[in-house]
Amino acid sequence: MNSASCAAKISTQPFSLNPSSPTSHDNPLVSPKPTSLFLGSTRKLRLSSSSKLNLRRRSGTVFAVSDVVKQKKSKSTPSLLITKEEGLELYEDMILGRAFEDMCAQMYYRGKMFGFVHLYNGQEAVSTGFIKLLKQQDSVVSTYRDHVHALSKGVPARAVMSELFGKTTGCCRGQGGSMHMFSREHNLLGGFAFIGEGIPVATGAAFTSKYKREALKEADCDHVTLAFFGDGTCNNGQFFECLNMAALWKLPIVFVVENNLWAIGMSHLRATSDPQIYKKGPAFGMPGIHVDGMDVLKVREVAKEAIGRARRGEGPTLVECETYRFRGHSLADPDELRDPAEKAHYAARDPITALKKYLIENSLASEADLKAIDKKIDEVVEDAVEFADESPIPSRSQLLENVFADPKGFGIGPDGRYRCEDPKFTEGTAHV
Ligand SMILES: Cc1ncc(C[n+]2csc(CCOP(=O)(O)OP(=O)(O)O)c2C)c(N)n1
Ligand SMILES: [Mg+2]
Question: Assembly state and interactors (predicted)?
Answer without folding.
Answer: Tetramer of 2 alpha and 2 beta subunits.
